[in-house]
Amino acid sequence: MSQPSETPYAGLSPDLILDALEAAGFVPTGGLLELNSYENRVFQLEMEDGSFVVSKFYRPDRWTDQQILEEHEFTHELKDAELPVVAPLLRSGDSLFEHAGFRYAVYPRQGGRSPNLEVEEDLKVLARTLARIHAVGALRPFQQRPALSLNRLGAESRRFLLNEGFIPPDMEPAYASITEHLLNRLETTLSGMDISGRIHGDCHMGNLLWRESTPHFVDFDDCVNGPPVQDLWMLLSGSRDEQQGQLDLILKAYNTFHHFDTASLRLIEPLRTLRIMHHAAWLARRWHDPAFPRAFPWFDSPRYWSDHVLSLREQQAALEEPPLSG
């Protein structure tokens, strides 16, 4: 069954989900709860033995089977190293399944809350855990998954938004000008960026579940070859002085398990800039998926694009500031 690219989940009914779990060798009771996810579709299901699993149905045509399997292999490698990551369950040695045109994986349910980054000891634990993840990731690069790059996150995002007419005509010249300047600036800064190791790639608080003094890392859907600092800068918040204090704690803890290249701190604001640009294009690329207008009603409005251009100008100023020190 082929899924239309604009509404890829139109045929993903509760019955199909339950049938898919049964086809993979699981025994669901019928209890099903949709969880918060937009890129993929994620559901919690109750099993006949009283346990719960979480099933992720991958967005069609985003990743190849080989790229998804590399994600799974990485999480299992981390789990084997006794790291607190949530890896997909295996059935007869398989972690990726297909049913009625949908590819999916099944995970154990992991409870927890978002970590409190204002607690210094929690921040240190996060840093030490990420260091161990990066130490495993540094053993070899991905062969199938992409690398974090200026072109993929920046230039392609800019090109898509300008070509597809999402930006209001009166804002388009400002967007085109500021993004051209930023890309030219970032090309120099990101030159020679280390992309030899595997990283989580999307280490925001929604992908961290804190339980019993341990951070559990979930959703490696965006794992890539890239610099470890990409997974660290999202732990920083507040004023520059506050971020510097947080970074001092993070690096001291991180370096107990894996060496951090302090020269890569110059990448923090460039990487933040790329994330801002890519996020806008991600929303635009998914706008025909009915879940996105419901979840992001403020997108595709003149106010959004005005604020977006303003945030890019703020990033332009931030790029001129000296980087945080190690």
Task: Assign the CATH topology of the largest domain.
Answer: Transferase(Phosphotransferase), domain 1
Instruction: Kindly state the number of beta strands.
Output: 9
Record the strand order, biggest sheet: 1-2-3-5-4
Domain unit count = 2
Question: Radius of gyration from the CA trace?
Answer: 21 Å
**Structural class, please?**
alpha+beta
Low-confidence stretches: none
- Major sheet size, sense and barrel closure: 5 strands, antiparallel
Explain what this protein looks like in three dimensions.
The chain is α+β, with helices and mostly antiparallel strands and 326 residues long. The chain folds into two domains: 14-108, 2-Layer Sandwich (Phosphorylase Kinase, domain 1), CATH 3.30.200; 120-319, Transferase(Phosphotransferase), domain 1. Helix content is 42%, strand content 13%. It has helices at residues 14-23, 65-80, 120-137, 150-164, 172-189, 229-232, 240-254, 268-285, 291-295, 302-319; strands spanning 28-34, 41-47, 52-57, 97-99, 102-108, 198-199, 208-211, 214-217, 224-225. Strands 1-2-3-5-4 form a five-stranded antiparallel sheet, covered by helices on one side. A two-stranded antiparallel sheet has the order 6-9. The protein has a two-stranded antiparallel sheet with strand order 7-8. α3 (120-137) packs across α7, α5 runs parallel beside α10 and α8 runs antiparallel to α10 (302-319). The longest helix is centred in the middle third of the chain and has 18 residues, at 120-137. The model has no long low-confidence stretch (mean pLDDT 95).
